[in-house]
């Protein structure tokens, strides 16, 4: 186990965030020790806005055994989702294609039920192991209340590993599906971002609503509404969390309805 003081801007895909005590744990016993004081969990740092003043709690990052995987067995929650998507395709196993391009670790993808219009994380789950109240518990997906970009894990629960629901299919068919998903996501920005900022309202697109108000390119400091996709805020270099929050406030003022955050502030 490694404990160090860091700036979380170096660990988030948006590139913002203040100081924290980072606990990198590699075993189940280390995880038990790390959770003996108030904590938060850092996955791959996507879909996350960390305030400039930082985080007072311990920040836990899963490594070691939590990053090992067996596509036909248990998959560690610290495993990168893009890696799994590619490995499954090479193995001729279908079920993850709709998650192509999501820059998450498995645990974070489970917690927020990450997905695209082609599929959600919950669709690919057979079982989820969650650490809470000092012990490891296994749940079936139906017990975790998955919905659009949400789940209902036990309070303080940390996803530690999952079993995936994959089916054998011809590799060519899997690759065609992945190419379809990839084409649909080509309009997303390449600059630093946290992913989509807002959840789509029922029957509408948050990005389209923002675009229709002419808000692409709106900027506060180095935080800007992406020119490629209205539902992304990008970091042009030195953006701070306060810039992002002010930009979100200005966007909300211009819209006919209040949008719900998809990024976790």
UniProtKB/TrEMBL annotation:
Gene that this sequence comes from: murB
Any Gene Ontology biological process: cell division
Top EC category: oxidoreductase
Localisation: Cytoplasm
Enzyme nomenclature, EC number: 1.3.1.98
GO molecular function, one term: UDP-N-acetylmuramate dehydrogenase activity
Family: Belongs to the MurB family.
Record keywords: Cell cycle, Cell division, Cell shape, Cell wall biogenesis/degradation, Cytoplasm, FAD, Flavoprotein, NADP, Oxidoreductase, Peptidoglycan synthesis
Protein's job: Cell wall formation.
Gene3D superfamilies: 3.30.465.10, UDP-N-acetylenolpyruvoylglucosamine reductase, C-terminal domain (3.90.78.10), Uridine Diphospho-n-acetylenolpyruvylglucosamine Reductase, domain 2 (3.30.43.10)
Short name of one Pfam family: FAD_binding_4
FAD-binding PCMH-type domain: residues covered: 15-169
Residue stretches spanning the membrane: none
Pathway where this protein functions: Cell wall biogenesis; peptidoglycan biosynthesis
Cofactor: FAD
Catalytic reaction list: UDP-N-acetyl-alpha-D-muramate + NADP(+) = UDP-N-acetyl-3-O-(1-carboxyvinyl)-alpha-D-glucosamine + NADPH + H(+)
Protein name: UDP-N-acetylenolpyruvoylglucosamine reductase
HAMAP family the UniProt entry points to: MurB
GO cellular component, one term: cytosol
């Amino acid at each position: 186990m490694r404990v160090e003081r860091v700036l979380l801007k170096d660990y988030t895909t948006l590139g913002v965030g203040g100081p924290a005590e980072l606990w990198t744990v590699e075993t189940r016993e280390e995880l038990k020790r790390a959770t003996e004081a108030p904590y938060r969990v850092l996955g791959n740092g996507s879909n996350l806005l960390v305030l400039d003043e930082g985080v007072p709690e311990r920040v836990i990052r899963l490594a070691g055994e939590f990053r090992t995987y067996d596509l036909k067995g248990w998959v560690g929650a610290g495993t990168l989702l893009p890696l799994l998507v590619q490995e499954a395709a090479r193995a001729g196993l279908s079920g993850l294609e709709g998650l192509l391009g999501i820059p998450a670790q498995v645990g974070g993808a489970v917690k927020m039920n990450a997905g695209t219009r082609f599929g959600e994380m919950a669709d690919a789950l057979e079982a989820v192991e969650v650490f809470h109240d000092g012990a490891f518990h296994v749940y079936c997906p139906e017990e975790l209340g998955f919905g659009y970009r949400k789940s209902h894990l036990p309070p303080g629960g940390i996803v530690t590993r999952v079993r995936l629901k994959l089916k054998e299919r011809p590799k060519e068919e899997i690759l065609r599906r992945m190419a379809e998903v990839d084409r649909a996501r080509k309009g997303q920005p390449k600059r630093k971002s946290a992913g989509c900022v807002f959840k789509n309202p029922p029957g509408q697109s948050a990005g389209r609503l923002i675009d229709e108000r002419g808000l692409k390119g709106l900027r506060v400091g180095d935080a800007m509404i992406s020119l490629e996709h209205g539902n992304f805020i990008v970091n042009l270099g030195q953006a701070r969390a306060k810039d992002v929050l002010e930009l979100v406030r200005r966007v909300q003022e211009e819209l006919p309805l209040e949008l719900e955050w998809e990024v976790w502030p």
